């Protein structure tokens, strides 16, 4: 005769806020007996099961996706314990959008090359070796 397990209980999440696709660690009790026991994982109403990595019965790591709600519970569902509850919530932050007149920073990797004629290092390659569109900005 098998003993019925308690439902999952989420007691902690780190970090407790972030933008979509933030990697979070979920802590709790009865979070499953193994990776195949995990049936569902939602954060703020978004299904995060595809990115979930079951670590132990008290720890799951996943990424928060685009969600309908900006604040919500973390719900874990397992075969062995059913649908769980949460004592903590996650706050989904809106990513900042960059407009035409806003400043932004982009890292452009410049190649170093050695000029054998002058026996010196050059920091920026000649125009013929530079990519045509180093930032990848397309004008439509």
From TrEMBL:
Q: What GO CC annotations are associated with the protein?
A: exocyst; Flemming body
Q: Which GO terms describe its biological process?
A: exocytosis; Golgi to plasma membrane transport; protein transport
- Compartments reported by the entry: Midbody, Midbody ring
The record's listing under InterPro entries reads:
EXOC2/Sec5, Ig-like_fold, Ig_E-set, IPT_dom
Keyword list (alphabetical) reads: Exocytosis, Protein transport, Transport
Highest taxon of the lineage: Eukaryota
Does this UniProt record's set of keywords contain Protein transport? yes
Do the record's keywords include Phosphoprotein? Answer: no
Q: Where are the transmembrane segments?
A: none
Name the major location: other
SUPFAM superfamilies per record: E set domains (SSF81296)
Q: Which residues form a coiled coil?
A: none
The segment(s) forming the IPT/TIG domain are 8-91
Summarize the subunit comment: Component of the exocyst complex.
The role this protein plays is: Component of the exocyst complex involved in the docking of exocytic vesicles with fusion sites on the plasma membrane.
Family to which this protein belongs = Belongs to the SEC5 family.
Know the name of this protein? Exocyst complex component 2
The organism is Gulo gulo (Wolverine)
Q: Taxonomically, what lineage is the organism?
A: Eukaryota, Metazoa, Chordata, Craniata, Vertebrata
